[in-house]
Structure to design on (161 residues):
């Protein structure tokens, strides 16, 4: 069965950045299962997997626009440390949830200078090309329940974690 919309696909993957550093990989021996065509993977990777079959192996480079987006300087702001009251021991690299007009937003502390803290609302992989090595383990049709929920259930899926 070829991968298409509404397929449940199980893949093993390794994700590296431009320097070859491993950023992420499928967990120890367990493939990642996802519902194809429902926005569960970044667009560039999902597009490359369309039409492939179980057993296929591929190397995919996904540019930022097809991954986590271009880096947006407008999502970086400096706030006084007092704006982070209630958060003990603020450190660089810390991930926080901030309230914005668009709702809750994940931000990363990227700099602390005196009383000013720089918060970056970009995804940590924004602006980066992503290099995937993928092996397709299995392809099957989604169940009605999976389709109605928009994600995978059952072995190696949503409810197993």
């Amino acid at each position: 069965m070829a991968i298409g919309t509404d397929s449940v696909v199980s893949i093993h993957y390794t994700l590296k950045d431009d320097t070859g550093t491993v950023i992420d990989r499928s967990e120890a021996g367990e493939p990642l299962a996802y519902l194809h065509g429902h926005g569960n993977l970044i667009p560039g990777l999902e597009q490359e997997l369309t039409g492939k079959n179980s057993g296929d192996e591929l190397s995919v480079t996904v540019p930022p626009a097809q991954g986590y987006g271009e880096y947006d300087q407008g999502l970086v702001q400096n706030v006084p440390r007092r704006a982070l009251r209630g958060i003990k021991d603020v450190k660089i690299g810390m991930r926080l949830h901030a309230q914005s007009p668009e709702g809750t937003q994940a931000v990363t502390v990227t700099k602390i200078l005196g009383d000013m803290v720089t918060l970056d609302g970009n995804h940590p992989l924004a602006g980066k090309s992503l290099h995937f090595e993928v092996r397709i383990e299995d392809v099957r049709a989604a169940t009605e329940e999976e389709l109605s929920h928009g994600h995978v259930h059952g072995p190696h899926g949503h409810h197993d974690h």
User: Anything to note?
Assistant: The chain is about 10% helix and 40% strand. The first helix runs from residue 43 to 49.
